[in-house]
């Protein structure tokens, strides 16, 4: 039977585990592992949405989140009295998410005409540019120092700074955005985006404005990343050029590759693995060797399971199912066993 | 010429008209001074040897590569400078020499995307109140082209002949006014070819169909009127019987040098 690996039951089991996990865990596990995994997962989710459904690999997702973090700091409570505005936190969040979405659209407008490696390069250039801007600009980014003393608000007497409420906030955001992406994939916009990934020219001749769809997809990715950015600055309590460095941008790409981009869940699976390695590599090897270790794991995943951990699970499930399924009756043809081989390239 | 049979005022305006259309790729002249007029509901075949400019002609009409000179009118409306998607929304559809499908999507989703492309709401993050009507249109297309059993399969998994059928079905979403078919019979087995010809014959007579075809028998059997292209120009036009009997056309096909 397929029961052991069916997505419905696995999903339900994961949900129950995630909800009851703080009952048993220490604050370290709740915040450092639980909440941080959700935050990284949300930012990686914005990349999986773009790359998995839209075929557009953006290296600018982390700086999009970073901009939202900076907006939260600049327009909220932080420790530098000389800079920024103290807006109410509700307005502050709306502003941060709007800024992230607008930034996503702007990145989309710049990158929309590029495909493949060129899109990676241009978005990487944006990410690097953002880092240097943050490091040199005093007026908004506070240059080297950045902002400190940022705190998650207190909502109806519940301090979102405390481990358990903060974990549930991150979990709620993560699950909502995950659900949003899964649902969006089945809507006209989401299907059109996948169509554009498969064949932009075809989509044009079906009546779609490819450029507009791609820019809108970037806007949605900006929205998702911005929520991740708000949570991230609440988690860290500070934001500085170090939080938006190129290394962190690459980490988001690594998370997406580790987890796999064929399904949105890959973002969170990848984030969990990455986070565990980051936190526990120190127990196995030197702290300085974290990059070596994550590099080797990344290499192994790319070589042996190109669609990430999610792809591996998919493959296991297919093997599992093959045994008890009756052979297909309709239209037998050779391509069934190897769906990766593209047919129909006749002149 | 049967082109000038005027029945009513609407028939006066051709379904598709090209006025001395040309297309260059750098120094290469792929298409030169092509003038064509198609009346509503006409079945036209375009034949010619490899490199005659047949597919380039389609590309200029659909906007995949806009023409570098001349004008194109769709039902009297100048579409020369329009982007491809705008032309599609005005009732122009095409298929490609090698069927282009959305490979990772199911056949059902391919149809849904095609239906939505015509109906609008392309940027919606919800399926909308007309989801039922969309689904019915998807089923209508599948039934019309005989691909109902394929709906759940991913496009990449189906056979070449099935891809042809699916692609034609997608082009029929929302019932087009002008349908351009680029070698629909290429690479098909004799059985599939029969299915395809039957499908083409069953299409509503309101659709103007232009067919590029290498196979003279298929082309001459289906079309009411034939345009022969050679070296980027219209070589000659005529009724199928006349074209079939034309010695010069045979020479072009056989690759003999023509003066």
Q: How would you describe this structure in keywords?
A:
heterodimer, A: 347 residues, ABC transporter involved in vitamin B12 uptake, BtuC, two-stranded antiparallel ribbon, 2 strands, 1% strand, globular, disordered C terminus, B: 259 residues, Rossmann fold, four-stranded antiparallel β-sheet, 10 helices, 36% helix
Care to describe what's here?
The complex is a heterodimer of chains A (347) and B (259). With 347 residues, chain A is mainly α. Chain A has a single domain, classed as ABC transporter involved in vitamin B12 uptake, BtuC (Orthogonal Bundle). In chain A, 67% of the residues lie in helices and 1% in strands. Chain A has a two-stranded antiparallel sheet with strand order 1-2. The longest helix of chain A is centred in the first third of the chain and has 28 residues, at 27-54. Chain B folds into two domains: 1-91 and 177-259, P-loop containing nucleotide triphosphate hydrolases (Rossmann fold, 3-Layer(aba) Sandwich); 98-175, no CATH class. The A-B interface holds A 184, 186-192, 194-195, 197-199, 201-210, 212-213, 216, 330-331, 333, 335-336, 339-340, 342-347 and B 62, 64, 83-85, 88-89, 93-94, 96-105, 109-110, 112-114, 116-118, 121-128, 149-150, 154, 156-160, 162-163, 170, 173, 186-187.
Elements of chain B, N to C (H/E): HEEEHEEHEHHHEHEHEEHH
Please identify the structural class of chain B as seen in this structure: alpha/beta
Task: Tell me the β content of chain A.
Answer: under 5%
Biggest interface found: A-B, 39 and 49 residues
Distance between the termini of chain B: 26 Å
**Kindly state the mean pLDDT of chain A as a whole number?**
88
- List the secondary-structure elements of chain A in sequence, H or E: HHHHHEEHHHHHHHH
Total beta-strand segments of chain B: 10
Give the helix/strand class of chain A.
Answer: mainly alpha
- Would you tell me which CATH topology of the largest domain in chain B applies? Rossmann fold
N- and C-termini, Cα separation of chain A: 44 Å
């Amino acid at each position: 039977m397929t029961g052991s690996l069916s997505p419905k039951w696995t999903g339900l089991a994961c949900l129950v585990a995630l909800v009851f996990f703080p009952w048993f865990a220490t604050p370290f596990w709740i915040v450092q592992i639980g909440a941080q995994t959700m935050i990284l997962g949300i930012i990686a989710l914005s990349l999986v949405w773009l790359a998995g459904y839209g075929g557009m690999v953006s290296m600018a997702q982390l700086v999009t989140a970073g901009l939202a973090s900076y907006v939260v700091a600049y327009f909220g409570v932080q420790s530098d009295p000389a800079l920024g505005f103290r807006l109410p936190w509700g307005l502050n969040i709306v502003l941060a998410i709007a800024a992230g979405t607008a930034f996503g659209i702007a990145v989309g407008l710049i990158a929309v005409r590029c495909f493949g490696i060129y899109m990676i390069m241009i978005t990487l250039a944006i990410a690097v540019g953002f880092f240097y801007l943050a490091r040199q600009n005093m007026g908004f980014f506070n240059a080297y120092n950045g902002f400190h003393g940022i705190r998650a608000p207190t909502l109806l007497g519940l301090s979102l700074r405390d481990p358990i409420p903060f974990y549930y906030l991150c979990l709620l955001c993560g699950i909502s955005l995950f659900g949003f992406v899964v649902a969006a994939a089945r809507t006209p916009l989401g299907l059109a985006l996948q169509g554009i990934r498969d064949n932009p020219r075809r989509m044009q001749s079906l009546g779609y404005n490819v450029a507009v769809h791609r820019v809108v997809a970037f806007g949605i990715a900006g929205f998702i990343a911005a929520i991740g950015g708000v949570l991230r600055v609440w988690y860290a309590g500070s934001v500085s050029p170090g939080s938006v460095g190129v290394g962190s941008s690459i980490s988001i790409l690594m998370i997406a590759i580790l987890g796999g981009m064929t399904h949105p869940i890959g973002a969170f699976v990848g984030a969990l693995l990455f986070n565990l390695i980051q936190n526990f590599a120190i127990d196995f090897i030197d702290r300085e060797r974290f990059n070596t270790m994550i590099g080797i794991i990344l290499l192994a995943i790319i070589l042996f399971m190109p669609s990430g951990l999610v792809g591996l699970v998919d493959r296991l499930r297919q093997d599992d199912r093959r045994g008890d399924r009756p052979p297909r009756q309709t239209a037998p043809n050779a391509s069934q066993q190897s769906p990766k081989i593209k047919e129909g390239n006749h002149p | 010429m049967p082109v000038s049979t005027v029945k009513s005022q609407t028939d006066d305006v051709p379904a598709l008209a090209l006025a001395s259309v040309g297309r260059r790729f750098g120094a290469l002249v792929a298409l030169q001074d092509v003038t064509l007029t198609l009346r509503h509901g006409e079945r036209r075949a375009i034949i010619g040897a490899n490199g005659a400019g047949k597919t380039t002609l389609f590309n200029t009409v659909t906007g995949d590569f806009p023409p570098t000179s001349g004008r194109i009118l769709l039902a009297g409306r100048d579409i020369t400078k329009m982007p491809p998607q705008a032309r599609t929304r005005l009732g122009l559809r095409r298929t490609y020499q090698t069927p282009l499908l959305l490979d990772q999507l199911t056949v059902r989703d391919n149809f849904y995307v095609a239906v939505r492309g015509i109906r609008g709401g392309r940027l919606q993050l919800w399926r909308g109140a007309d989801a039922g009507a969309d689904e019915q249109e998807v089923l209508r297309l599948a039934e019309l082209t005989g691909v109902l059993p394929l709906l759940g399969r991913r496009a990449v998994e189906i056979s070449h002949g099935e891809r042809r059928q699916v692609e034609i079905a997608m082009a029929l979403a929302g019932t087009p006014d002008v349908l351009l078919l680029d070698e629909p019979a290429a690479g098909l087995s004799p059985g599939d070819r029969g299915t395809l010809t039957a499908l083409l014959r069953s299409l509503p007579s309101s659709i103007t169909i232009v067919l590029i075809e290498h196979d003279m028998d298929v082309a001459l059997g289906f079309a009411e009127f034939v345009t022969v292209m050679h070296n980027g120009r219209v070589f000659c036009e005529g009724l199928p019987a006349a074209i079939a009997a034309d010695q010069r056309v045979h020479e072009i096909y056989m690759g003999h040098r023509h003066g």
